[in-house]
Amino acid sequence: MATKRMNVLVYSGNGSTVESVRHCLYSLRRLLSPTYAVITVTGNAIIKEPWTASCALLVFPGGADLGYCRTLNGEGNRRISQYVERGGLYLGLCAGGYYGSKRCEFEVGKKPMEVIGNRELAFFPGTCRGCAFSGFVYHSEEGTRAVQLRTSKAALSKGSVPDLFRCYYNGGGVFVDALKYKGQGVEVLAEFTEDLDVDAGEGSASVVYCKVGDGAAVLTSTHPEFAASNLDPTIDLPGYDKIVEALKENDQQRTDFLKACLLKLGLHVSQEAMGIPSLSRLHLSSAEIAGIPRLMEALGDIITEQDGEEYIVDENDTFHLEKPSRWSLGSVADAIDGTVDTTSGDQQNENEADQDKIIDYDKIVKRLLIHDKEQPESKDTPYFNHNAYVANLKHYQSQSRGSGRIFGKELLYGEVVTSTNTLLEK
How many CB atoms lie under 10 A from the CB of residue 290? Predict the structure, then answer.
């Protein structure tokens, strides 16, 4: 039986930037949930893991495509190409657009920034040449512009497509002579309306669709995934606040264009932007009543106390230890050592509802309820029956030997969490 493709994988390995990955996750989750699970993927996973069967869309965000090449040239790109040719989908944003083209030309003649070379994926059969607009500086907003794009409604036949809109730009290229490749399955989805600082050949394509075997790719030079609400207008750069304001005024059009691109690829897009669910409390319990006191004693060396409250401050996350009888509807007043945002619980829910923007979940204190006297009640965990779990576990243990009698005694349960790997390992 064929596996349903339900994962949208956003590359977060060598070459990508943290901010670009965050923007991708934010926008794609809002537009593609709950049909798809939008998660990150590393270069090592692309090369070694069996990701292709369940992947609906592979996304390469902004960054530096030389890093992509160093990690994926050879086997990684072979697997990506095979995936797309066999019906997969690829979305390349800015650096991902350069990377998905047959040839990359970046800041030619401007050493040490110059990058020139062929690329293995070659979804766009020509050259992506940049920077389309001068001024780009790595790891900076100095080259940022709110560029105006003209869309092609003939190519984007689904969704509400704006004629013109402004979009975040910072270092992207232009797809040279894109119109000449129509016979090879290339369609221009949007063009720059302003004069460019590089030779674009025929036309000035900023977003292209490329038919690749049984699959397809959309490559962009701009960032339609960047929402204005996630940009900081107070950055100390001349005119940057006006750029953010212009993007804010065009945010609905930007969203509509991104939806149309995803529909062009054949994805199911939510009609209304889906909010990201709030983090739930974590429940720590044991099949044996004495198990939790023993566990807490073992964790004693890493438990700290502040203002009468207990915390575990780990490499990535901070956990506030609570007993069911001590549930608090407020948040902890001060950050631990002044570095941790202690927003939690109901206050977090209110903040998420009020702020339609990226939330740094690493800074949110996770509320960990310690059930040392009895199992969590069903009203507290309506989607999981702890008593039924314990009964079935004991039945399994009665028929097992060795480690089977130990496995599963302690249980950490949460309904909405961040990365389980990060929570457990870091």
Answer: 9
- What are the DSSP calls for 403-420, one per residue? GGGTTTSEEEEESS-S-H
C-alpha torsion sign, points 398, 400, 405, 408: negative
**Mean pLDDT confidence for 352-356:** 48
Q: Name the nearest CA neighbour of 325 among 373, 390, 389.
A: 373
Q: What is the CA radius of gyration of the chain?
A: 25
Query: Which among 175, 164, 161, 160 is positioned nearest to 119, based on CA atoms?
Result: 175
DSSP string across 274-337: PPPPPPPPEEEEESSTTHHHHHHHHTGGGEEEETTEEEEE-SS-EEEEE-GGG--SS--SS-GG
For the record, the structure tokens of 283 come out as 């429940």
Q: Is the pLDDT of residue 333 over 70?
A: no
Residue 116 vs residues 127, 196, 206: alpha-carbon distances, Å: 10, 19, 19
**What's the rounded Cα separation, in Å, for the pair 122 and 186?**
12
Nearest to 34, CA basis, from 423, 424, 416, 382: 416
Q: pLDDT band for position 3 (50/70/90)?
A: low
Q: Give helix 251-264 / helix 18-32 axis angle, nearest 10°.
A: 80
Average of per-residue pLDDT across 345-372: 68
Q: Which two tokens stand for residue 22?
A: 């965050």
Report whether pLDDT(403) > 80. Answer: no
Determine the length of the chain.
426
Supply 323's token pair: 């007993």
Terminal alpha carbon distance of the chain: 37
Q: Residue 244: name the closest of 257, 232, 262 by CA.
A: 232
**Does an H or E element contain 150, and which?**
strand 145-151
DSSP 21: H
Query: pLDDT per residue over 163-220, tens digit each?
Result: 999 999 999 999 999 999 999 999 999 999 999 999 999 999 999 999 999 999 999 9
Q: How many CA atoms lie within 13 A of 270 on its CB side?
A: 16
This prediction's pTM = 0.79
Question: Is residue 34 reached through a cis peptide bond, with omega within 30 degrees of 0 on the bond before it?
Answer: yes
Residue 344 to residues 335, 366, 409, Cα–Cα distance (Å)? 12, 7, 28
User: Cα separation of 161 and 154, whole Å?
Assistant: 10
Nearest to 9 by CA among 47, 63, 48, 54: 54
